[in-house]
Amino acid sequence: MLLQILVFFITFIVMEFMAWFTHKYIMHGFLWSLHSDHHKKDHDSWFERNDAFFIFYAVVSIGCFLLWQNGIFELGIAVGLGIFAYGLAYFIVHDIFIHQRFKLFRNANNIYAKGVRRAHKMHHKHVGKGDGECFGMLFVPFKYFKK
Fold first, then answer.
1. What is the 3-state secondary structure (H, E, C) of 76-116?
2. Which SS3 state, helix, strand or coil, does residue 132 take?
3. pLDDT value at position 147?
4. Which of 4, 1, 3 is nearest to 78 (CA)?
5. Residue 70: how many other CB atoms lie within 10 Å
6. Which residues contact 116 (CB under 8 A, 6 or more apart)?
7. 47: left (phi over 0), alpha (psi -120 to 50) or beta
8. Could you give the CA distance from residue 5 to residue 78 in angstroms, rounded to a whole number?
9. Are 138 and 89 in contact (CB under 8 A)?
10. How many whole angstroms separate alpha carbon 29 and alpha carbon 15?
11. Residue 98 and residue 120: Cα distance in Å, rounded?
């Protein structure tokens, strides 16, 4: 049980790196056609083409659950839940808190909230991956927490 908990937390933390890597080299790379509408809204829909990226990680998470359920990968439940928990945290911080796709957490104004907002604002300032910064989401550079 302790190993499962440890793997859950390690997976959650590794997902931040995966999100950074995927964001910088895939979303701002060869799949820019799916991510571009997140930086420049060119449609009237509430949904963005960018929303398709969650499907990949959902499939990986579900795959881990299935491997665990079928006795193939004992740590699959911990890995699957770690991926799911990161996805949920990402959705809450990015889509709900920062971009206000649902009108919640509008008054959050603590040090962490301000830092995350500043970092994401800087990310949207630069569109290309070469000049871009702050491709991660939950762990942002300390400079954005300064007043």
1. HHHHHHHHHHHHHHHHHHHHHHHCCCCCCCCCCCCHHHHHH
2. coil
3. 64
4. 4
5. 9
6. 93, 97, 98, 137, 138, 140, 144
7. beta
8. 7
9. yes
10. 19
11. 8
Among the listed residues 37, 1, 3, 11, the one whose alpha carbon sits nearest the alpha carbon of residue 89? 11
pLDDT averages per 10-residue partition of the chain, 147 residues: 97 96 90 84 80 92 98 98 96 86 80 86 73 81 81
How many Å apart are CA 64 and CA 121, to the nearest integer? Answer: 34
Distance CA 117, CA 99 (A): 9
Type of residue numbered 111: I
Cα of 76 vs its chain's centroid, Å: 20
Q: What are the structure tokens assigned to 70, written together?
A: 């079928």
Q: Tokens 């499907």 map to which residue? A: 55
Contact 140, 119 (CB under 8 A): yes
Residue that the structure tokens 């603590």 belong to: 110
Residues in the chain: 147
